[in-house]
Amino acid sequence: MAKTLKNKEIEELKKENARLMAALSEAEFECQRLEIINSNLEAQLGESNRELEKNIEILQSLKGEIESIVNTLKSKS
């Protein structure tokens, strides 16, 4: 009887191990999926930062032009 109980315990442990291995596999898959998403978001962030820098340069240029026009108008008055 003790031997049968031990076999049952071994079988239960095998089942639990299989369940945990499946959960680990799912977690690894989810981790890979999130790494891909993160990589895509980093690429999008880089592109957004480049566009933002261009927009800032354009706005600074426009600001300079506007200030020049204002100064020209003031000097003509």
Question: Can you lay out the helices and strands and say which pair or pack?
Answer:
Elements: H1 2-76
Estimate what percentage of residues fall within beta strands: under 5%
Count of DSSP-assigned helices: 1
Poorly predicted spans: none
Topology as H/E string?
Answer: H
Q: Provide the residue-averaged pLDDT.
A: 94
Described by its quaternary structure, the protein is single chain
Radius of gyration (Å)? 33 Å
Helix and strand content put the structural class at mainly alpha
> What characteristic shape results from the CA principal axes?
rod-shaped
Q: For the terminal residues, how far apart are their CA atoms? A: 110 Å
Helix content: over 70%
How many DSSP E strands? 0
Instruction: Please summarize the sheet with the most strands.
Output: none
